[in-house]
Amino acid sequence: MKEYTLLAFFSVIATGCADTLTGIRVLRRGIFYGYLAVILCFKLLVNGYLTGSHIVLYDERFFLNIRFGTIPLEDFLFGFSMVTLTIILWEFYKKIIPLHKSGYPQGMDP
């Protein structure tokens, strides 16, 4: 069974649901895709190095073995989910936790 593949696709679906359910709608913002492109450049460098130099190895029983260079497709899906969910949660909590003029949550000034 391709567990890594299933989890990667599930993470993308769960992230899309989180975007909709929280009302943040980051996936509808053009600026998000520019940000994602910048992240992708660094992902290609770092992940490409790690997988290309065999520091990180994958067992072919657990993923589709579709690669872009040396990087498995599933790594891109997980990376998308991780970055996107972080932005969704940041924006969500920014809406519900009032900020002091310093930019910190009230009562948490340094």
Describe this structure in words.
- It contains three helices and two strands.
- The chain has 110 residues and is mainly α.
- It has one domain (3-87).
- Strands 1-2 form a two-stranded antiparallel sheet.
- A hairpin with a 2-residue loop joins strand 1 and strand 2 (71-72).
- Helix 1 (3-22) runs parallel beside helix 3 (73-96) and helix 2 crosses helix 3.
- The longest helix is centred in the last third of the chain and has 24 residues, at 73-96.
- The radius of gyration is 17 Å and the shape is elongated.
- The mean pLDDT is 91.
Topology:
Blueprint: H1 3-22, H2 30-52, E1 67-68, E2 71-72, H3 73-96
Antiparallel strand pairs: 1-2
Helix pairs in contact: 1-3, 2-3
Work out the radius of gyration. 17 Å
How many domains is the backbone divided into? 1
Give the N-to-C terminal Cα separation.
49 Å
- Helix percentage range: 55-70%
Biggest β-sheet: strands ordered side by side in the sheet = 1-2
Q: In percent terms, what proportion of residues is strand?
A: under 5%
Helix and strand content put the structural class at: mainly alpha
Shape: elongated
**Biggest β-sheet description:** 2 strands, antiparallel
Rounded mean pLDDT is 91
Q: Count every beta strand, where a strand is a DSSP E run of 2 or more residues.
A: 2
Uncertain runs: none
Number of helices: 3
Task: List key phrases describing it.
mainly alpha; 110 residues; two-stranded antiparallel ribbon
In summary, what is this structure?
By secondary structure, the protein is mainly alpha-helical.
